[in-house]
Design goal:
5 strands; hpI Integrase, Chain A; about 325 residues; about 55% helix
């Protein structure tokens, strides 16, 4: 039995569970050791091979809700705890202006956390719907303009030249392989097989997969490895020899897009989506794309690689012309 679900009393020698009564004499924060429960929950997620980023997100959500609960009073029965949770969701919507998908995630994570601790107060809370807006992507010309934005830079120091080459390799690799930015920053040089043009990736849920990259990216990687001259195991490093952060990659891409004259918002995720969308447009089977992206479920890939309207219209017109002729 979970250590947090052992609210028991004895009646004539029999142990009677009081796990679902929740008419607590004290506040729920006194009945349960939340800091210890949070620590145990995060350990459980790590044991179950949740990714580092997922654990970080779950930790933030649970701690933020715990901090909110500490400001509430008289949390001594189920009704008051339920009301506190609904107040928190309202607070996120009104005061924090978070997305509907974040509300969905908070609801799921907090309910799972309570269930882990043997607290079933939130069972009646229904999980809100997620929005299914389609991720945007760049066209092929925009991708090339992004990658080559700083090719004409002149009179650069040796360090600046290496930095620009490194960033060019990063952009080319994100687009040609569909890597997640969290996978790219921890990429080791010895994970890259230049002869086979493959990379072994440890992705979400500690699952290994192989991704591919093209000949152009291969030449860029070879040039970068030859010039970078350091003994760190990471492929992409800063001046101190430490691996780059996802935040740095995001800001670098933003600056590169501005230099390339691209008005759209450009992120590592948009490059990943562009990779998948362009493969789909060029006839690659969706199950192959699923494998390259590292998606556990095909349904995720189907949403993620939605065909743009231009391609859909061309396919429609081509199909209709068969009937009209």
């Amino acid at each position: 039995m979970n250590q947090y679900s052992n609210h028991m009393r004895r009646n004539g020698g029999e142990v009677v569970s009081e796990a679902h009564s929740y008419d607590m004499k004290n506040s729920i924060l006194e009945e349960y050791d939340f800091p210890e429960m949070i620590e145990d929950y995060l350990i459980e997620l790590e044991i179950r091979n949740y990714s580092r980023n997922t654990i970080k997100t779950y930790k933030s959500i649970v701690i933020n809700f715990y901090n909110f609960l500490q400001l509430e009073k008289n949390l001594t029965d189920e009704r008051r705890v339920l009301r506190a949770f609904k107040k928190y969701i309202t607070h996120l919507k009104r005061d924090k202006n978070v997305s509907q998908n974040y509300i969905y995630l908070v609801t799921v994570v907090v309910k799972k956390f309570f269930e882990f601790g043997g607290i079933h107060i939130l069972n009646e809370i229904k999980t809100p719907k997620r929005t299914k807006s389609l991720p945007k992507h760049l066209n092929e010309e925009e991708v090339q303009n992004l990658i080559h934005a700083f090719d004409k830079a002149e009179n650069l120091s040796k360090h600046a030249q290496l930095r620009n080459l490194r960033n060019k390799v990063i952009l080319a690799l994100l687009y040609s392989s569909g890597l997640r930015v969290s996978e790219l920053v921890y990429l080791h040089t010895d994970n890259v097989d230049l002869r086979e043009r493959t990379i072994r990736i440890r992705g979400k849920g500690e699952k290994d997969r192989i991704v591919l990259f093209d000949d152009t990216t291969k030449l860029l990687i070879e040039e970068y490895i030859e010039k970078k001259d350091d003994d760190t195991p990471f492929l992409f490093v800063n001046r101190s020899g430490n691996h780059l952060t996802p935040r740095y990659i995001q800001m670098m891409i933003k600056d590169q897009a501005k230099a390339a004259g691209i008005k759209k918002k450009v992120t590592p995720h948009i490059l990943r989506h562009s990779f998948a969308t362009h493969l789909l447009k060029n006839g690659v089977d969706i199950r192959a794309i699923q494998q390259l992206l590292g998606h556990a479920n095909l349904s995720t890939t189907q949403i993620y690689t939605s065909v743009d309207m231009h391609t859909l219209k061309n396919a429609y017109d081509k199909a209709r012309s068969v009937y009209e002729n």
